[in-house]
Amino acid sequence: MAFKITLKAIIPSCFNVKIDVLPFEDKNNIVRVSKNSNNCGHSRLALSDISDPESSLSISDLSSNAIIGSNLHIFTHSELKVMTSNFSSSNFLGEGGFGPVHKGFIDDKIKPGLKAQPVAVKLLDLEGSQGHLEWLTEVVLLGQLRHPNLVKLIGYCWEDEQRLLVYEYMARGNLENQLFRRCSSSLPWLTRMKIAVDAAKGLAFLHGEEKPVIYRDFKASNILLDSDYTAKLSDFGLAKDGPEGSDTHVTTRVMGTYGYAAPEYMMTGYLTTKSDVYSFGVVLLELLTGRQAIDKKRPSREQNLVEWAKPFLKDSHKHDRIMDSRLEGQYSTQGAKKVAALAYQCLSQKPKSRPTMTNVVKILEPVLDLKDIPIGPFVYVVPSFDCKSSGLNNGCLEKKRGEEKEEENKVKISDQNDKEISAGEKRENGCRQRRLGHMKQKNQLKSATVHSDTYLLGL
Q1: Span of 5-9, 156-160, 291-295, 354-358 with lowest mean pLDDT
Q2: pTM value?
Q3: CATH of 173-369 given 3.80.10.10, 3.40.50.920, 1.10.10.10, 1.10.510.10
Q4: Catalytic residue flag (residue 217)
Q5: What is the 3-state secondary structure (H, E, C) of the chain?
Q6: Is a pLDDT exceeding 90 seen at residue 410?
Q7: Of 49, 123, 222, 276, whose CB neighbour count within 10 A is largest?
Q8: Region (Disordered): which ranges (predicted)?
């Protein structure tokens, strides 16, 4: 028998509650409150199930601050229209399973007390793969949890059928786009490792909570990057409470992304924090290889990244066969060995053999300090197709073309002067022309390259 109940009726006003997660598959209980401390200021509210919005959390519960405290701001739909220029296509950032995301701008005129800043506004697609419960999970979870490597939720909008979320704006988008998009400079080795460390810290924080939070959808597209490439985890709609007491796992519907989900979870629905560790191993492989977890454009044996790359992880002498060629050797050999060995551990078929995320952080952080990266600037080879259609303005290429043209003019001047000098001087100038021709050939090769640091500044 289902009981209609609101959280207001069961939460004392003194509660400074902390929400672990809002799972929603099971239908045995509507709301469970567990008190882990006699001090109400440290009591912990656990929402183990919200299967029906009408029987649990309402908009008045959220706005009362009894659930999520005072961390979040409440926006009206009209305010969000102003912030995003009526959700203009020019402000469109992308779209996922939740719905479209638009860039906006907020200042104290719209919300007194909020500093002027760009934001990302995510609108729930009512016909999409996610719904109100996932939206609610995100609000309650991020309303309570704060960490440098979790994306910051600024506020939300709940009006009639409208469900929107307002986040801090992450200038460099997500890792998937940065790592795999065409006509873009390749991420340098140390940047990749910094992203790996940041993401690992975010997962370690979730797993280290008093009641662990299982992310359940860790993947490259859910890792957002700010202007300094600081990585932050996003999209917590599928997050789930970890097992309690003597339980070794929780059983759920199989949800997530193929290619990243742990095999035991896919087969049985048994979910643990080690399921996230497996997914982290897949992302480590993507950072090493520059390949996507699933790529149907590759030969059949190489379409599944884990199946293709895992045999090479065992032998340190074969690591170079899977390293991203776009790195052009500009990476720490010792670091690559450590990361490959770690990825192999994370991808173990036996969950108990996988490391904890705390240990993953301890292994990865020293990789950032290794000094055996080959000396020399990282060079990116620009694809032969025109990048202008992708919105990239490569001023560096124009500079190189100008240098090439200047060298050609020098050769023409030299040819003209040759007609006016003696035969002996012509022979001498012939040698000079051959040298100039060699220089021209080198410049033609250089004209197709751009130093990555300069290129990034042009984005």
Answers
A1: 5-9
A2: 0.71
A3: 1.10.510.10
A4: yes
A5: CCCCCCHHHCCCCCCCCCCCCCCCCCCCCCCCCCCCCCCHHHCCCCCCCCCCHHHCCCHHHHHCCCCCCCCCEECCHHHHHHHCCCCCHHHEEEECCCCEEEEEEECCCCCCCCCCEEEEEEECCCCCCCCHHHHHHHHHHHHHCCCCCECCEEEEEEECCEEEEEEECCCCCEHHHHHHCCCCCCCCHHHHHHHHHHHHHHHHHHHCCCCCEECCCCCHHHEEECCCCCEEECCCCCCEECCCCCCCCEECCCCCCCCCCCHHHHHHCEECHHHHHHHHHHHHHHHHHCCCCECCCCCHHHCEHHHHHHHHHCCHHHHHHCCCHHHCCCCCHHHHHHHHHHHHHHCCCCHHHCCCHHHHHHHHHHHHHCCCCCCCCCEEECCCCCCHHHCCCCHHHHHHHHHHHHHHHHHHHHHHHHCCCCHHHHHHHHHHHHHHHHHHHHHHHHCCEEEHHHHHHCC
A6: no
A7: 276
A8: 401-445
